[in-house]
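*** Backbone structure tokens ***
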Amino acid sequence: MSTFGKPVLDVRDLHVSYSQGDSRTTVVHGVSFSVQPGEVVALVGESGSGKTSTAQAVIGLLPANGRLESGSIRLNGEDISRWSAKRLRNIRGAVVSLIPQDPGNSLNPVLTVGAQVREILELHGRIDRRDADRRVIELLAHVGLTDPELRVRQYPHELSGGMKQRVLIAIAIALRPALIIADEPTSALDVTVQRRILDLIDDLRREYGTAVLFVTHDLGVAADRSDRIIVLQGGRIQEQGETAAVLAAPESAYTRKLLSDVPSLIIAQPRPAVEASRAPAVVVRNLVQDFDLPGGRTYRAVDDVSFTVARGTTHAIVGESGSGKTTTIRAIAGFQKPTSGQTLIDDFDVGSLKSGSLRQFRRKVQLVYQNPWGSLDPRQTVRAIVEEPLLNFEPIGRAAREAQVTAIIERVGLPAGILSRLPHALSGGQRQRVAIARALVLEPEIVVLDEAVSALDVTVQAQILALLAQLQRDLGLTYVFVSHDLAVVRQIADTVSVLQNGRQVDHGPVEQVFNAPSSAYTRELIAAIPGRKLPRATALSTGSIS
């Protein structure tokens, strides 16, 4: 890394605002920083911190209602802050490139992968079709895509999330730009895929000497992958400096708060063992789930999975996309009948329940879904959302319903005044609390949480985990917690099942599985967890569920 000479990027006193109706709000306040050739600088902060707006301003891609109010943005010494959209288009890809956050929505679904990579070559250089085709295959191979000759003919929907992200990286590096802006490039990916993508970006940076501005809310990723770090809150820099120095001795209270909320593989005290006398709440026995495919073929999503969840404890199911996690919990919740095997709740075989008894059974088992933005009806008030299960299951008087809804809203840490609001008026953490309240209003015994904290910022995530711990202690709840984040799992779970391609490759008490994993796959998952360079002092759990 070069620490002297002319920076690739130099941002001074940047102010960015957005209009809404007749008003305009400033969201970036006087931000200044630089990025040297070959350096990785991380912009870190929660939602609303201004990190994405800062990055968008640098590359000239602010939304239509956004405006760069003042300040300078020098790219290779030239101030581009007042350039026209046409002039900025000429440098995108050639001098500065963007790796966007969501690989699923960032590629054109009606163009082949090859056509989309070729487009950047043809836009910025005089290159004939044959040379362009050869270069496209070289780029796809360079970013680690297998069988690149096949990939050029495929459409985005035929690729996995990790493969799509590699295509976006191929587009970003095609013209060897001086600066790559990586905007949460791995937040939607499984942990092992995340590590491979981050390794790839790091290898390409070393090979080409490219500078990287890395936008992330994940302090673990920033700690492991950046040379310098800039911590943003409310559009203002709280502190910046060499990553190791800032994380070892943070000066701002906000940075210290972020660090304290990071889940970590290093736990101060092992979780106590589950008492053998506890009765089982959930028993999954030799579960098999097949799905029919075209042409008479069959896909086995879950293959002979067995585990037991003791009452009042938390069992985690972990694994990457396609591992069988969601299929397993759908069988537990009674949403599908297994091909073979059993799921037992209080000794009742869920798969054998008929419609009437199955409906009553669902009072016992409630789900909290992953996405707090998509799981609530945007047309309903919070009161209507939480009240709805009461109307569906057991008609009770209006006054009693009102009292029950208010009580559960207050129990999840929300003020009663929020009941009249619509979901769009709530933060992500507030929405997830509403989703938890809706699940608990029927007083279930078992709550299945499907990636329930993965879409949340680290401080909000810590608050929700602490809330779940308190609710479990107060109400004796049993949790089945689905996650791909092993750091969170170690913090909150008593027992764990690790799934790979539908099979259970590890199972047992959390400490046993983490300290002595029996499968190479579990060892790979643990090794891929970011944050190993975080100071040990920050690696303490903020709460436990037992």
About this structure: Residues 537-546 have pLDDT under 50 and may be disordered.
